[in-house]
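Many introductory courses stop at the sequence. We go one step further.
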Amino acid sequence: MIPLLTVDDMHTGGEPVRIVVSGWPPVPGASILEKRAFVRANHDHLRRILMFEPRGHADMYGALLVEPSLPGAELAVLFMHNEGWSTMCGHATIALGRYAVEKGLVAVTEPVTRIGLECPCGLVRVEIAVADGKVGGVSFESVPAFLSAADLAVDLPGHGRVVCDVAYGGAFYALADCCQFGLEFGRDRIRDFVDAATALSDAVRAAHRPSHPDSADLEFLYGSILTDGGDGRAAPTKNVCVFADSEVDRSPTGSGVTARLAAMHAKGQTAVSEIRVFESITGARFDGRVMSVFDCGDRQAVTVGVSGRSHWCGRAEFIVEPDDPLGGGFLLR
């Protein structure tokens, strides 16, 4: 039987990146957001085939390379997950940096290969360390990131009043210290973090509508990040990101690190070029730092540099038999 879709699988900090190699139909659109709208309306069944069981799982993540439309972009990508199509993904960007070099998708320069990656949130600059043909760490510089709401208070059933920041790092996140939920990293179940973060996302969506100067298509809360309250200076600060349909990021979350640093800088808690370290629930770490500060619309914004490493998992060919009632995908939790 001829494969319907072929993919390469990687991970960054334990978070999967399923990269489409072949089988996906052409994606028209003059801009990346038009392409995102097209696949959402016309190709979502293919997302479910790749992300859902029996080929994936509730926390699967994927990337579809498409034709770039922005000047300076060598590659363009659409990100997919259990709920739909996101606007930015740092862990996938790190994986795609290595992937682009090792698959020969871009011209390689040692010791650093630089590429422009067009994401739905904008152009992301990616740097890949290459020595003797081998890829090491990958870094990216974010699109403009900013604090959307500081010290936003919301009432949560069972938890009372919780205070959070809402910040943009390519996607909007609510950021809160997990101690407000009586949680502690290393002691409490991940399920408890998921429930708390999901409740926070629901409450923030009801209380705050984020705005973005570039496009209304970016104006939605992607998820919540619960932290250990640290700042990543003397010791790594732990966090867990719960996004989309209660999906749990195994990595420190590149766009989440960007959002955290944007909020920290706006509140005077970090300076330009000051490296902070962020740790995920798997123990994986990303380095992050504010790289530049400027005005973005009516607010101050920053760009953030995030660094990490990705690894290969394997390759697969997927089919769907015509008489398979579950072939289109399903999810169990």
